[in-house]
Amino acid sequence: MKLLILDAGHCLSLALAREANRRTDTELMIEAAVTITPERLADISPEALVIPPLSRPISAEPAAVTAHAEAVEACMEACVVCGVPLVWCVSDQLYEEGFAGPIDEHVVPRPRDDSLRRLVITGDRIRAEAPRHLIIRLGPLFALEGSHAWLGELVDTLVIGGECRGESDVIFCPTSADAVAVALIGMLQQQSCGADAWGSYHLAGTEPVSAYTFISMVRTQLATRLEGRGEHRELGVVKALKHHHDQPLRRVLNCRRVLEVFGVHQKPWRLEVGRLLDAWCYVNEPAIPGSKTGESP
């Protein structure tokens, strides 16, 4: 199976590359650009085109959100011309106001923010014009490397003593980019074998948690690992933010459909964070990386 993914530096693109390299049944082509022409798509002739998510669209510049939406629509048009299935990964932040309970796949986001509504319009076009599509709604992605690699940003900031901020009243399910890569390849393998199960799916980690608690846990686990190898380092502090004074905002995705259709289980984010921090300690002994800004999605 040959797949094509755009935005080569994105943390999901890197995760897909790692997973494809471990397999003998998947060939991954990566384009640096965020869009593709019908001519180039026809030349590569993949079995699916994968578009990584725009991370943190709520806090992104409106121009960046519009540019992403327009790029996705251009890709969708190229896919329709070439008969190539489209996979678009989308941030859970499109559910701007959250829900009291887990959010099912059939619930189309209806945000009030103009930029987020622009992304919903793109999703509506995909559903109407590209029957062979997967819209994958994700919890906040984390990874150690690549753009939008939230965990890598947090670790880099903590080890130089910087401050990390996270909302204590926004509840979500952090999602490992590596876990998404494994799930996507498995889903597309089944599609290539005739599953014909196109549509929208939710994919996230287990155990809803606040941004503040997630960052605090990362700090605690990192400190434990550094102390275990004899490094007594003063890590940066974690500051709690609060924006929803009445009750916490919950963006918890119900991932039951992806399990029922494709057999994909959610990965526990705590285990994934622990695995990645172990990998970071192995690579960075005794070196400490430089600084980036660690902020919550």
From TrEMBL:
InterPro entries: NAD(P)-bd_dom_sf (IPR036291), RmlD-like-bd (IPR029903). Signal peptide: none annotated. It holds the Pfam family RmlD_sub_bind. Residues 62-279 form the RmlD-like substrate binding domain. It comes from the Bacteria. This is dTDP-4-dehydrorhamnose reductase. The lineage of its organism: Bacteria, Pseudomonadati, Pseudomonadota, Gammaproteobacteria, Oceanospirillales.
